[in-house]
Design goal:
This protein is α/β, with parallel strands linked by helices. 43% of the residues lie in helices and 20% in strands.
Length: 261
């Protein structure tokens, strides 16, 4: 075997030995996550990539849309929903590994207005007149029939006796971030979004917080999908780590699960 042949042979062996890891890193992980997760999860993913060199691609949308996409065969390793209903849907459709499911985060819903709005602090309680507060303007939130934030908003307003009068004024958005944008642009005079969304948008202000007992608990469950690759388990463990907890809490989420080392 001449010198050139030996070099080529050695390179072939080296590439063959390195290819599984290189392939895994090149493929990375795909996470389907609720739109309200974007800022926090982008930072968590960056921390995970810095630690492992594994690239994470996150697809953000309403949990309803993501659950249906996974059901239709969209490739995803992790599903992170903004409510338990759509994770239950994934369980029913057998698109997640139920033994990996945990309740990861909590949140709250708030009433927002454009930053320069004359509307200021509002007490949200029984008898709260949202319709009167909105006047001739629109109120933005997620679709109350499917998008989690909209479902939470409707439940709260029904319990407070404010839904019937306010319902005609609602502008239903495809996701919580779309609703947030409507308020930030002044296209809606009020909006109902998660507290974490309001925190990252400088063009809106929080004018009231809905009582926790006015709606079902806001829970973000997470699970591996049934088509998840081998790297999903390590990523899921990272979501339960102290490093991830610190980031999530910085953005205003409540960490609901125990820390995994």
């Amino acid at each position: 075997m001449n010198r050139l042949t030996k070099i080529l042979f050695a390179l072939t062996i080296a590439c063959g030995l390195a290819s599984p890891q290189a392939s895994a890193q090149e493929k990375g992980l795909t996470v389907f996550a609720a739109a309200s997760m974007k800022n926090a999860l982008d930072e968590v993913d960056a921390a995970y990539t810095a630690k492992t060199a594994v690239k994470v691609t996150a697809s953000y949308a309403a949990s309803s849309a993501l659950a249906k996409q996974i059901d239709q065969g969209a490739p995803a390793d992790i599903f992170l929903s903004a409510d338990t209903d759509w994770m239950d849907y994934a369980t029913k459709e057998k698109t997640i590994k139920t033994d990996t499911r945990t309740n990861l985060l909590g949140n709250s819903i708030v009433l927002i207005a454009p930053k320069d709005s004359s509307i200021d602090k509002v007490k949200i309680a029984s008898g709260f007149d949202l319709a009167k507060l909105a006047g001739d303007g629109r109120i933005a939130t997620g679709d109350v029939n499917s998008v989690p934030v909209g479902k939470y908003a409707k439940a709260a307003l029904e319990k407070l006796g404010a839904w019937d009068a306010a319902a005609p004024k609602f502008a239903m958005a495809e996701s919580v971030r779309a609703a947030l944008t409507l308020v930030a642009r002044g296209e809606a005079v009020l909006g109902i979004v998660y507290a974490t969304d309001a925190k990252v948008e400088p063009l809106v202000k929080i004018v009231g917080t809905f009582p926790a007992d006015s709606h079902p608990p806001i829970i973000y469950p997470v699970a591996e999908t049934t088509s998840a690759g081998p790297g999903a388990t390590d990523y899921l463990a990272f979501l339960h780590s102290q490093a991830a907890k610190t980031i999530f809490e910085k953005y205003g989420f409540t960490f609901l699960t125990s820390i995994k080392s």
